[in-house]
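Handout for the seminar on molecular recognition.
Each group receives one record of this type.
Step one: identify the two inputs.
Step two: read the structure output and locate the region that could contact 0O2.
Step three: write two sentences on what you found, then compare them with the reference statements printed after the record.
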Amino acid sequence: MWNKEQDMQELDSMLSQLPREILQEKLNKVREIMTYYHCAMLEMETKLNVLNKQFALQNERNPIESIKTRLKSMPSIREKLIRRGIEPDIDNIESNIYDVAGVRVICSFVDDIYMLADCLCQQDDIKVIEKKDYIKAPKPNGYRSLHLIVEIPIFLHKEKRMMKVEVQLRTIAMEFWANLEHKLRYKKGLSEEQEKKIGEGLSECAEISASLDEKMYNIRNMIL
Ligand code: 0O2
């Protein structure tokens, strides 16, 4: 769930089925790693807020409408590991799952997305691992967003640790579409024909939302 901190009780209940002697060790490991991801998420959110403030100072407008954060739930991490044929063990999380810490940036205009992504990628403590541009090349269903997987440092008591964070950048229109699509995708009991019609409808809405973004961008440029 985006914008909601992970409840550690969920992890505790899952792990409670393990033998007692290894349970404590596993629980501590999970708590530790999830805390590090949480810290990385906060670091990234701060970096974005700093960029937003500086841009507002220079241009008298905020490129960021809002920022949402989420830690991937343990069942979802487990499901992703299994889907990829990897043993669902705590030690396999860091090297295989890159979106445990997620930061979603909702921007005003499409060019703000690329401006912010460039600014982030140029920061000398950030290492870019992966970039997926679903704006230039939308998914077949119409999904659009810019995804970055980056590594950022968190500074602990005695060490510096590089942590992966997924940053999703999108406009308000892209966010509106993705949220509704996400809700509708999980509607069960639809016939094949209904699914096809809904898919076509969503794809059409994605086109409309893309043209809305373009129109808003043109209006902004006229005003500026
Ligand atoms: P949540 O709730 O955001 O955690 P994957 O699909 O995860 O196995 P990969 O390569 O990580 O593989 O996926 P990708 O395409 O880079 O992006 C994954 C995330 O982007 C998703 O996370 C969604 O947040 C978002 N996303 C991607 N495609 C769609 C889409 O078609 N519709 C919507 N609404 N969102 C999409 P999760 O883990 O699925 O969910």
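Reference statements: The chain has a mean pLDDT of 90. The two ends are 37 Å apart (CA to CA).
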